[in-house]
Amino acid sequence: MDPWKQDPDSATTTDLTVLIGVLANVQAALSVDSPDEVMSHLLDRLRRDLRSLGLTSSDQTTEVIKAVADMNARLRISIGEVSGA
User: Fold this and answer.
1) CA dihedral in degrees (27, 69, 22, 35; nearest 10)?
2) Are residues 30 and 68 in contact, defined by beta-carbon separation less than 8 angstroms?
3) 19 vs 25: CA distance, rounded Å
4) Please, are residues 65 and 23 in contact by the beta-carbon 8 Å criterion?
5) What is the pLDDT of residues 24-70, one digit of tens each?
6) Which of 4, 35, 80, 77 is nearest to 47 (CA)?
7) Where do the H-state alpha helices sit in 1-85?
8) Measured between alpha carbons, how far is residue 33 from residues 29, 41, 55 in Å?
9) Is 55 strand, coil or helix?
C-alpha cells in the first residue's frame, strides 16, 4: 500500500502524541547552532529523509525547521490538540 494513501486513522492517538513530542524536540535541536555529537547523526538523517521524501528541497536549516514544524502542526491537528482553521 502506498504510505501517502494510507487511511489517516490507522495511527493511534498514542502514536501521534509520542511522535509530536519527538518532532518538537528535534525541532528545538535544529534551532541550535552546534548540536552535540549524539544529535548530529539524527539531524543529518532527518535532513536526508525530508529531502528524499520531497518535504524540503535543500538541507538549509530554516527549510528543515519549517518542514518539521509543519509536520508537527499537522499531527497536532489530527489529534485535535489544535484547530486546523
Assistant:
1) -10
2) yes
3) 10
4) no
5) 878 877 777 766 765 776 778 888 888 888 889 998 999 999 988 88
6) 35
7) 13-30, 37-52, 61-78
8) 9, 15, 22
9) coil
